[in-house]
């Protein structure tokens, strides 16, 4: 559910929504959501001084509740 929500949010921000890929991995410290976007969209997803990325992490953290979730952003 978290991966789908994050993918939906990121697709609404970027210019190349077909290049958005969200992959979920489990680990000892909780779940990691890896977001890959088109290289031209990376700055748009990160935002000025990381504000957009921080907002995405806040929303996903709120949806996760008590579960530990980490969001990593990178270009495809």
Automatic annotation (TrEMBL):
Main localization (coarse): cytoplasm
Record SUPFAM superfamilies: Prokaryotic type KH domain (KH-domain type II)
One annotated GO molecular function: RNA binding
Record's keyword annotation contains RNA-binding: yes
PROSITE patterns named among the record's database cross-references: KH_TYPE_1
Subcellular localization: Cytoplasm
Entry GO CC: cytoplasm
Protein name: RNA-binding protein KhpA
Originating organism: Sediminivirga luteola
Source lineage: Bacteria, Bacillati, Actinomycetota, Actinomycetes, Micrococcales
Gene this protein is translated from: khpA
